[in-house]
Amino acid sequence: MNTELMEALNVLEKEKNIRKEVVLKAIEESLVQACKHHFGKSDNIVVNMDYNTGEYEINMAKEVVENVEDQQTQISLPNAKILDKRAVYGSTVYVKVNSKEFGRIAAQIAKAIILQKLREEENRAVYERYKLMERDLVSGVISRHFERRGEDGKSTTVNVSVNLGKAEATLMAGEQIKGEEYKVNTRMKFYVVEVKDLPKGPKILLSRSRPELVKRLFEAEVAEIKDGTVEIKAVSRAAGSRSKIAVISNDPNVDAVGACIGTQKSRINAVTKELKGEKVDVVLWSEDLEEFIKQALKPAEVLRVVITNPDPKKKECKAIVPDNQLSL
User: pLDDT tens digit string along 80-93?
Assistant: First the structure.
């Protein structure tokens, strides 16, 4: 039985990152609580467990006294001598407890404690795993939709539950792209906004609408961004309609815009496909503000840019374009 237990714990540790020592500690605690229910107290209960084999022994510490008044905590000298020949009045001897004597309710208490520890440890493992993915890209499958009632008690919003493989995450209505369909069993990529450690378990919040999603998608597609040759300096997004990213090359021999677009537009098409057809423009970053604005307004042809208010809080300019470019 102990061999099977240890094998099961090894599987849990490997597959779910549930620490074996924590479960064994929970078993120790459950045995103490089972003793408390069976005997009425647990202050003098000592559980010795070998964490390598799973073997355990339960003992009841008893004081050697002349007149026994409490069978649970005291023992007579003659009986103590049977257990330990060195026993004297005032010393402590340990009486072995047979756990098979525990009743059904005591066993249920022990089981409940172990299951609770397993849940807590599994939640901890999930939280730690996905906390590392915060502000990063994850892939998940749409599992279901659920409504959330507004504060007025009348309006409702539809949130989406996403299966990430090891955990369920939530795509709130405010993080969805208007008009985008979230069909059950569809695999999509998401930006991890936040991972919260809550009493009921970790809560993972996702987004499809944030500019960071576009940035992470390019980082995943473009090797030059991964190795630092090309740097994304800014991202602007009207989710579901158009995104623009501004890039610069740290190597004069590498074309930053070309690297992001890829051969036959393969890289930018992969990003666009993941964004369900949202238009994506890649523009060249420049320290020259007027030049950067010209680049940012592409594909429109800009004749002239006039900075009308360079105040960082205002950031106002006037861009002059031919009449036939106004729609762009």
Answer: 999 999 999 999 99
